[in-house]
Description:
This protein is of the alpha/beta class.
Amino acid sequence: xxxxxxxxxxxxxxxxxxxxxxxxxxxxxxxxxxxxxxxxxxxxxxxxxxxxxxxxxxxxxxxxxxxxxxxxxxxxxxxxxxxxxxxxxxxxxxxxxxxxxxxxxxxxxxxxxxxxxxxxxxxxxxxxxxxxxxxxxxxxxxxxxxxxxxxxxxxxxxxxxxxxxxxxxxxxxxxxxxxxxxxxxxxxxxxxxxxxxxxxxxxxxxxxxxxxxxxxxxxxxxxxxxxxxxxxxxxxxxxxxxxxxxxxxxxxxxxxxxxxxxxxxxxxxxxxxxxxxxxxxxxxxxxxxxxxxxxxxxxxxxxxxxxxxx
Length: 310
Ligand code: GDP
């Protein structure tokens, strides 16, 4: 296959797929459109967790065992913060801090998240393009039995324990897609638009909530293929399955597909899930991405499915 590949993605699950794509197509032909609904201001700093997960993963700096942050991180800042009685529920490693300080300073000076992210990616020699879904702040909130919780409060501080009734994306209606997001989706040379195995509700829905992105996906020439984030009737990690149940959904590839609706043209389903008629074309493979070879296999299978639809 030749042409560009786009990936709509959250953090860890999506970064694994992008890393796999880098093994099978030219990295510079890949564009990741990344969720920024998890972004928040903490201790005066602007933190963009999903963008940073992609930056760390694609530059080989991610702490894979921990699932967030960087490998070989040191914690002098957090230790000092704690001694002063500062909020310590959100861990900021010393190296990680450099990213947040620089990003915050540049945002304050008028630079956009898109430009800053591109500069970080270039400094670390990342070939793929990383595009924030929007340069305007969008903030995921969860209406829970404990009240309204901002995303990081729910996810990190409350460890996803509160039962969720509704999810909203504050600021989304007024946000614009990042400068190159729509033109990239609509570009003639796009061969495949993949929706990563990310959390549909917390990582992909915020992207689809930015006005214009859903319409662009409908109009795109390239097929939209979702890689199922449900494996063997459950989530591999994170709150996806718990959330789906709390919101009244089954935990199955069919339910994920129904949730995305007509934005999706095809689905890559895990071999552990027996699906009958999905209503859209699908392929089956082992979608678990433990090793680099696994990541490449899933990327290849998703691209082959897209190719078949062209
Ligand atoms: P996100 O990418 O930031 O949304 O975060 P996560 O890494 O927490 O993953 C979210 C969803 O992706 C969960 O439903 C996981 O089950 C799914 N996921 C994570 N890793 C894999 C994988 O290797 N294969 C598949 N098929 N799904 C995965």
